[in-house]
Amino acid sequence: MTTKSVEAIFNPPAPHMVGDGFRVHNFIPSMPELSMERMSPFIMMDYNSRISFPPREHPRGVGVHPHRGFETVTIAYKGKVAHHDSTGNSGVIGEGDVQWMTAASGVLHKEYHEQEFSRNGGEFQMVQLWVNLPAKDKMSAPKYQAIENAAMGKYLLDDSSSFIEVIAGQYKDIKGPASTFTPVHMMNAKLKAGSKAEFSFPTHYNTVVLTIEGHAKVNGHELKTDHLALMKHDGEHFEIEAVTDTIVLVLSGEPINEPIAAYGPFVMNSRQELVQAYEDLSKGKFGELEE
Ligand code: MN
Questions:
Q1: Any idea what the CATH number is for the domain that residue 167 is in?
Q2: C-alpha 140 to ligand 1 mean position (Å)
Q3: How many domains is the chain partitioned into structurally?
Q4: Which residue in 62, 184, 251, 279 could disulfide with 180, CB within 3.0 to 4.6 Å?
Q5: What is the tens place of the pLDDT at every residue in 237-266?
Q6: How far is the CA of 129 from the centre of ligand 1 (A)?
Q7: E strands of 176-272, at which residues?
Q8: Residue 281 domain-assigned (yes or no)
């Protein structure tokens, strides 16, 4: 078995606010080594590292905005977020849950702190990913998957208090509940200090590892809290070891080798399709959603 080695380890880039509710480090695509092409199908990664929000009656968040051409995946580690979109789907996700929204041909949505969480305030920590769609699926119908923590596949490791929680794809014989358009593996390694987990993904898959909590080692390389490791295309196999109790997000996906044309909230294959997206938005083809 060949080793998938660490290509680079990144500190979290300086954070910025998305609306007034999300304080995020954008790893993908703003870091030059983590372009949409290099990381496909993961074309955006905003990481809201742990932060405490003071109580507020009116929930913080991001107002109504469109998306077309990809999926948004929100993984909640701390806090609660509420979502509403123009297809009528809505939901609240809390600690350990995932919201997987397929924007595809287009939706309007808004994302806010859940009302009661906002009132009480508290710790907030989330990852939002954009997962690209192949050209043939970009204009398919929008859909929404609410994935509660209890529905996730869990692979228990030897010490049995450590486990891999599978959101999408597969870890050994355990499958994740999310349905995906292209092969995507998405999982949390929740490991107690001293325990180890082995991972194996095809050599050409784009693979990253993000430390959400605690301190880990990837193939022996230190990975502190909030740091991201980019894996090389040189083999299949790597190992994560928990130095302290840790939560590590592991992503690996088959690249979609098609042209990428991205602007703002739209990710298509050509400039013409971006122009069309703005035209469709102005004609109201993304539906309606109240602020
Ligand atoms: Mn959005």
A1: 2.60.120.10
A2: 18
A3: 1
A4: 184
A5: 999 999 999 999 999 999 999 999 999 999
A6: 10
A7: 184-191, 196-200, 206-213, 216-218, 221-223, 228-231, 237-242, 246-253, 261-263, 266-268
A8: no
